Amino acid sequence: MTKEELWQATLAQLQFQISQANFATWLKNTYILAKKGGQVVVSVPNNFSKEWLENKYNKLIFKILRNLDNEVREVNYTVERQAQTQREAASPAAATQEAQLELAPLSVDKTTNLNSRYTFDNFVVGPFNELAHAATQAVTKSPGSVYNPLFIYGGTGLGKTHLLQAAGNQMGKDFADKRVRYVSSERFTTGVVSAIRNHTMDNFRASYRDLDVLVLDDVQFLAGKDKTQEELFHTFNTLYERGKQIVFSSDRPPKAIAALEERLRSRFEGGMIADISSPDFETRMAIIKTKAQEKTLPLEDAVLDYIASNIQRNIRELEGAINRLAAFYKLNNALPTVAEAKNLLRSVIQSPSKFATPRRIVQVVAEFYDIREKDILAPSRKKEIVKPRQIAMYLLREELKSSYPFIGEKFGGKDHTTAIYACAKILKELQDSEGLVEEMTLIRQRIYSG
Questions:
Q1: Same domain, 271 and 143
Q2: What CATH code is carried by the domain that includes residue 299?
Q3: Cβ atoms of 30 and 45 closer than 8 Å
């Protein structure tokens, strides 16, 4: 395997294991400059990227390289701005071959923050997302007039960001005079902090309140950030009063977002709320075929069936599986067989039982309700602790078939009758509360996503 092929295979796996934004930020324009005596030297575009890869991703990169080539003993990073230009000048043919191996770049508009590859045309619609898709399309046809705000929620990797960005791209295309901006809640928060520090809050407010369309992703991360919530509240009011379109996404419905101001929660709930659940088998097959066609990857039906049958809860994992098989195809100039696909995807496809453990359940429930794990396990009687504890007990019983004495012992040595009561109480609430059913679905998705 040449050093170019080695790095391409590494990038293919990295793209599956880290977010697209981080991939584009830290791994774009990187390549292996030299490989000798077990040492791999990776060229990076600047010192900031060098420091980030060394401190954040070095262990992951080394592990992937080592799995691909067991001779690799060390990975180093260097800033080598001129090397690419020199290689292209010296060998145009090699440059062309390397360009063919490159992963498709992320084309992000600096003004709108929208990625042009997210469109409605390449969004696969199925029973699990058709309401969210229909509502989003309705919004793009008449921004600010229907479903304002639009709030879309669902588990990780189910296509919320794709749908939001497709809406932004469509509105930018159909209404060229409208100012559209897509932003993550993390970036919005960073903007608030920076504006406070630099005394530029008026400029920050103007940059958002002059928009015609605001698309804000992952609003669950605003929980507990009071100043950011205050700024969003006033920005929301300004835009809404002017008839501007606002679109939100979250990994849970508004009422399940902990540490969220009630006045902001009521704004989220004031428009249209649509959920995205896990795709069924037929939809997963359609998604896989679409992704494979995009990469000109004519996989045999048995391979497609294997992927669709074993990756059930996360569209991003489906795309990652296709990326991994596409890398194999490029490197070997041959389509993977079912046996080869199983081997390539063995780290992706695991038994659900490996994910659902008592510790994993407690961890996910604590994260979902924004409390500490030790508080769930402690004998606290606070209302905000009791319900998550009972849900965790119920999940241990339902998902792992744990005995009531085991569950009681797990939660601070409680009597088994406490576990029986908790499970019965949650079971009854699930029959009466649609909201709790939604929360439980999202919690299960997190548990089994690994």
A1: yes
A2: 1.10.8.60
A3: yes
Residues 236 and 365 in one domain: no
Looking at residue 29, its amino acid is N
How many Å apart are CA 326 and CA 286, to the nearest integer? 17
Cα distances (Å, whole numbers) of residue 137 to 164, 246, 258, 264, 336: 10, 14, 29, 25, 37
Strands of the sheet containing 31-36, edge to edge, are 31-36, 39-44, 74-79
Strands 245-250 and 150-154: parallel
Please give the order of strands across the beta sheet that includes 180-184. Answer: 180-184, 213-217, 245-250, 150-154, 272-276
User: 35 pairs with which residues across the strands?
Assistant: 40
Same domain, yes or no: 263 and 145: yes
pLDDT band at 382 (very low <50, low <70, confident <90, very high): confident
The Cβ of residue 224 has, within 10 Å, a number of other Cβ atoms equal to 11
**What is the reported pTM?**
0.63
User: Which candidate, 298, 365, 358, places its Cα nearest to that of 325?
Assistant: 298
Q: How confident is the model at residue 128 (pLDDT cuts 50, 70, 90)?
A: confident
- Tallying the residues shown for the chain, one arrives at 450
Domain encompassing residue 177: 130-276
Matching residue, tokens 């809406």: 167
Residue of 262, 190, 205, 200 lying closest to 236 (CA atoms):
205
- How confident is the model over 322-347, as a mean pLDDT? 88
Residues with Cβ < 8 Å from 442, sequence gap 6 or more?
153, 154, 155, 251, 252, 256, 368
More confident residue, 46 or 69: 69
